[in-house]
Amino acid sequence: MKKKEYRNKDKLVKKKQFYFHKSAHIEQNCQIGKDTKIWHFSHIQSGSKIGNNCTLGQNTYVGDKVIIGNNVKIQNNVSLFQGVSLDDNVFCGPSVVFTNVINPRSEINRKDEYKKTIVEKGVSLGANSTILCGIKLSQYAFIAAGAVVTKSVGPFELVAGVPAKRIGWVSKYGIRMRLGKKRNSYVCKFTDSKYILKNNKVSIEK
User: Fold this and answer.
1) What is the secondary structure of 122-190 as a DSSP string?
2) Dmax over Cα atoms in the chain, in whole Å?
3) pLDDT tens across 95-120, in order?
């Protein structure tokens, strides 16, 4: 992509099949899907892959080899560093923080020690939450605003606090489910899906 292609007076410019603000910097050799929108002052590095129908808010950074699925919503001031992957339908609130080195030192080069952080489909991350590298957030997990997540999170788990701990479960529709010792099942009134709690893990009954 040539730089001159991005010099446009319009606030939102269409390039091939996606849209971007004129202040965004999009490097060559990155893949951006259909109907994706990239807003003010964002930086998309070469080697990254972004799916269809995504929204990247103001000041979003997408690093080399980062993978973003379809229908992902990223709010303002989120940086996705190499090693991070977001599956379909992930929501990142404003100023969510990702890392890729567990023990950084300014004078030590640890680029060959980047750890992977896997965010599975449907996960929601609240504003200002921090996700330490090398963990997995399983499908439809819900991370509360301001949480510091230091270990992997199971499907549908609601975690909060510093460090984050499970405080409940949230349905695919985004409703907190009252599950526990006295109640091991929940039926969503919006989708009719039935959730089962077994061995401290929640799954959808097939």
Assistant:
1) T-EE-TT-EE-SS-EE-TT-EEPTT-EE-S-B-TTEEEETTTTEEEEEE-TTS-EE--BTTB-EEE-TT
2) 64
3) 999 999 999 999 999 988 999 999 99
